[in-house]
Amino acid sequence: MMPPSCDMCRVPPGRSEFEYEDFTLVEFRPARTYPDDWAGHPEHCVWFCPTHLPLSEGLTHLPAMEALKQILTNLRGESGPAGQGTDDSPSA
């Protein structure tokens, strides 16, 4: 499992105002299955800081990449016609 770093702002604990335990791992709909002995960070699990956690509400039925696209679309829609005013894009 990857250590916490918000997929929206990409700021890890220690470099943000939040502590390790403040981050929340959100599980979206898996796009694939994993064997029982598999180890790593599943593609459907995304870390969010407390600021960005509310953006994931109501989207956990989607695969993670679809949910992140929807979050970005929503953020751009709130910030004006050209999507100006937000720098909250996840790094791929």
Strand arrangement within the widest β-sheet reads 1-2
Rg estimate, integer Å: 14 Å
The end-to-end distance, rounded to whole angstroms, is 17 Å
Inertia-based shape:
flat
Structural class: alpha+beta
Query: What is the number of helical segments per DSSP (H or I, 4+ residues)?
Result: 1
Helix content: 10-25%
Give the strand tally.
2
Share in β-strands: 5-15%
List SSEs in N-to-C order.
EEH
Q: Give a short account of the largest sheet.
A: 2 strands, antiparallel
Low-confidence stretches: 82-89
Could you tell me the mean pLDDT?
84
Overview of this structure, please?
The chain is an alpha+beta fold and 92 residues long. It is built from one helix and two strands; from the N terminus they run ββα. It is flat. About 9% of the residues have low confidence.
Write the layout of secondary structure elements.
Layout: E1 24-27, E2 45-48, H1 64-78
Antiparallel strand pairs: 1-2
List its traits.
single chain; 92 residues; alpha+beta; two-stranded antiparallel sheet; 1 helix; 16% helix; flat
The gist of it:
This protein has one helix spanning 64-78; strands spanning 24-27, 45-48. With 92 residues, it is an alpha+beta fold. Mean pLDDT is 84; it is low at 82-89.
